[in-house]
Amino acid sequence: MLTSSHVGRRMGYMKQLIISFNPKHIMKNIKFSFLALTLVVLSLTACTEDILNVDFMLKFNSVDFVIQPQDQVENGEITMTIVTSTLKDELNANDATIDKLKSVNIEYVSLQILSPGVTFDLIENASLHIRAQGQEEVMIAELAKIPAGATQIEMPVKGEEELKEYLKQDQFDVVVRGTTTGPLEKAVEMRAKMDFEVTAGL
Questions:
Q1: Summary mean pLDDT of the chain
Q2: pTM to 2 decimals?
Q3: Quick one: CA dihedral 65, 190, 185, 141, positive or negative?
Q4: What's the per-residue H, E or C state across the chain?
Q5: Contact 139, 127 (CB under 8 A)
Q6: Which residues of the chain have pLDDT under 50?
């Protein structure tokens, strides 16, 4: 025989059951679980993409060139092509191919005068450009005012420039441009160093 206290306890138990299986709570749990699963999938996808990428530095550590007095034009400007190169060999060395190239950005540029007793006082400003067939020439580094007495300079780079389409070509050129402070009386030996960050898929 059920007393009123038994009925009360059983009704309380049923209330607890109803509360425990409230559809709103279930939907919240399902939504949360789906969101967590989505985040896990996205995280795994990103990790997989990172694993399938190879990052390396394309370095030109000793690009030596000579500025001759005849290279100077009437307004004091100088234009020199200092690198003519291809990326294919570097990609092959890193187990990647040119068609899997994803991104190329300039990371570092420096210029050094090798001629004894000569400083950058003879050059007012300098910039570095890259060009390739079918692409407009683009500036990748520039130093608008060179410090007095310097024999080596590091040039601020334009790292936001995407250079993939340039280095994908069969050949690309790196060009130095500058303005001299006066007539050049003799040849000046210089050295450029450049680092490009390359990302490619495997």
A1: 77
A2: 0.69
A3: positive
A4: CCCHHHHHHHHHHHHHHHHHCCHHHHHHHHHHHHHHHHHHHHHHHHHHHHHCEEEEEEEEEEEEEEECHHHCCCCCEEEEEEEEECCHHHHHHCCCCHHHEEEEEEEEEEEEECCCCCCHHHEEEEEEEEEECCEEEEEEEEECCCCCCCCEEECCECCCCCCHHHHCCCCEEEEEEEEECCCCCCCEEEEEEEEEEEEEEC
A5: yes
A6: 2-50
Note the pLDDT of residue 47.
Answer: 45
Q: What angle do CA 176, 177, 182 make, to 5 degrees?
A: 125
Residues 102 and 96 sit within 8 Å (Cβ to Cβ): no
What is the per-residue pLDDT for 112? Answer: 95
Taking CA atoms, 139 is separated from 3, 68, 122, 127, 174, in Å, by 92, 23, 22, 7, 10
Q: What whole-number distance in Å separates Cα of residue 197 and Cα of residue 3?
A: 82
pLDDT of residue 45: 41
Residue for token digits 């690198």?
83
Q: What is the pLDDT of residue 53?
A: 73
Backbone angles phi, psi at 193, to 5 degrees: -125, 135
Provide the pairing of β-strand 53-67 with 135-143.
unpaired
